[in-house]
Amino acid sequence: MTPRNPPHSTHVACLWCDAWFTPSAPGSREKRFCNSRCQVDFNTALRNWARRVFDAGLVGVDTLKMENARSRVVHDEETALEETGRDLQLS
Fold first, then answer.
1. Which domain holds residue 57?
2. Is 2 a domain residue?
3. 34: phi then psi, degrees, rounded to nearest 5
4. Is 71 contained in some domain?
5. Dist CA 19 CA 15 (whole Å)
6. pLDDT tens readout for residues 16-64
7. Is 85 left (phi over 0), alpha (psi -120 to 50) or beta?
8. The dihedral of CA 67, 69, 72, 76: what is its sign?
9. Residue 6 pLDDT more than 80?
């Protein structure tokens, strides 16, 4: 559980362990974890949960394929926007 008040007004709580940390600089990708171990643990837990949901028959292969295609489009659009922003900054 996240403590009520951060030690500093710019700190945010780690999504996995609730530790307070300083987020990334403005304009960079949002940081949700205090360190790489928390990110790995979160991703492992999420993968395990998704496997159980799939094995229980609650989600089918077609749904997974559709979501994968959708996330690829969003990722491609975000990458294009980031590259455009870099081009503008270099000018």
1. 12-90
2. no
3. -75, -25
4. yes
5. 8
6. 999 999 887 766 678 899 999 999 999 999 999 999 999 999 999 999 8
7. alpha
8. negative
9. no
